[in-house]
Design a protein that fits this description.
Peroxisomal Thiolase, Chain A, domain 1, globular, six-stranded mixed sheet, alpha/beta
Length: 336
Amino acid sequence: MNVQIGKQSLQFAEAPYIISSASIVGKKEGEGPLGNCFDVVGDDDKFGQNTWEEAESTLQKEAFTMAVGKAGLKPEDIRYLFSGDLLGQNIATSFGLMDCQVPIFGLYGACSTCGEALSLGAMCVAGGYADYVVSMTSSHFASAEKQFRFPLEYANQRPLSATWTVTGSGAYVLGKQRSKARITGITTGKIVDYGIKDSMNMGAAMAPAAADVICRHLSDFGRAVEEYDKIITGDLGTVGQEILWDLTRQSGYDISGVHEDCGIKIYDAKKQGTGAGGSGCGCSAVTLSAHYLKMVEEAKYKRILFVPTGALLSTVSFNEGMTVPGIAHAVVIEHS
């Protein structure tokens, strides 16, 4: 039977499988180090639509269709859909997936949404409530900049601590059908607030939440850092990575030897001018699909800990002088 482990974790007796995945990204992501690994790279970041928001909805629709098709399924085979994005009222998700006509849970975990979606999807399948679910998310550089920071036309300067929101959508079909990768456990994160108020330094805001959930996970499962081939955060970038290492060392865990960050992985920061790295819901979602999941499926990694990280701010809270709390969710993915 599935069991509760420690304070915040679950271990699945019949671990759900990741049957298929899909990654669709924009032009800049396609020019990065993982460019050849993505399923689709768009040559127009509006993806044939009139607005950035419609473009992001198109990303979700296409990623869903591709992932379901790769699994040899039809939309009507999917019992539940778990998805979310960064935009107000999750409009990229609702307008993008409306025509799929699949029962849907709309999620908001900021840039940690991929971890939240995979966690809830895995719980649903492991609990016997669905044979197949889709867990997915998206982000778009232009729609996020318009909502959270400055309109692109403003041409403001970006500090080196800023991260670049990834244009992309990643989708995963989870189910009981055997594949080469499965989700064996999860650790659900808590909201952690270290008082950061700089919206241009998301790595500093999210690193404490990542450290908290990683240390809690290792404690709950009674595992050493070395029992993971990689511990992969979502969106910390180079600034957040250093903070994460310091915080985990303070708790007795040195993860520097196995840690990698999707935000650092997806771009060549110096050549592409992406500051501290990448971020956005799509950052970890497409990087897991295009790179890390393939490494697990090929047994190059036997076990990884996937930890997408999110900054829980809005334009309202930021303009009212509130802090930027963080959240992170940990998902154990193993070769099967």
